[in-house]
Amino acid sequence: MTVSADRLLRRTLWGNAAFSVISGAVLAAFAGPFARAATDAPVSVLGLDLALLFGLLGVGVVAFGALCAWIASRSHLPQGLARLIFAADIAWVAGSVLVLALPASWTTAGIAGIVVLALIVADLAILEYLGLRRMRAAN
Predict the structure, then answer these.
(1) Domain coordinates in residue numbering, the chain
(2) Is the alpha carbon torsion for 123, 25, 52, 13 positive or negative?
(3) Which residues contact 59 (CB under 8 A, 6 or more apart)?
(4) Which residues contact 21 (CB under 8 A, 6 or more apart)?
(5) Using a CB cutoff of 8 Å and minimum separation of 24, what contacts does 74-79 make?
(6) C-alpha span between 33 and 86 (Å, rounded)
(7) Would the pLDDT of 2 be above 60?
């Protein structure tokens, strides 16, 4: 396989890593203010306060970003793990749709935040799909 065959996927994974680490760290650091801005009323999911849930989610997104960076940094790009990242991104978009359907009093800012993040992740998933397809065609 040539270097150009995996270039799109590798660069997309690096972009996903950077976006995930930065956005996850911001979400974890400002979980309380984001939770207050996202809803008009206190929200609890599985007994967890929304601010605590946002903080935990932020830490998880940082870890996901680290995994993306690790995969992108391999000399031989592991396609199986790249597919896992692609599947996780698709799951994030689907989960965002489900979250918007929850019986919560989302504010306009909350809805906008969920939608914008889902669109960014969907764009990354499209690029990952194209990169995986290009690699498969090169093999």
Answers:
(1) 3-138
(2) positive
(3) 24, 28
(4) 61, 62, 65, 66, 69
(5) 77/6, 77/9, 77/10, 77/135, 79/132, 79/135, 79/136
(6) 30
(7) no
Contact call for residues 82 and 13 (beta carbons, < 8 A):
yes
Contact 36, 52 (CB under 8 A): no
Rounded Cα distance between 33 and 42, Å, is 12
What are the pLDDT digits (tens) for 53-99? 999 999 999 999 999 999 999 999 999 999 999 999 999 999 999 98
Residue 109: other Cβ atoms inside 10 A? 13
| pTM given for the model | 0.90
Measured CA distances, 100 to 36, 46, 62, 115 (Å): 16, 16, 23, 9
Residue type, 73: S
Q: Give me the phi and psi of 74, to 5 degrees please.
A: -70, 140
CA angle in degrees (0–180, nearest 5) for 97-102-108:
75
Count of all residues that appear for the chain in the document: 139
Q: Which helix H or strand E contains 31, and what residues bound it?
A: helix 31-38
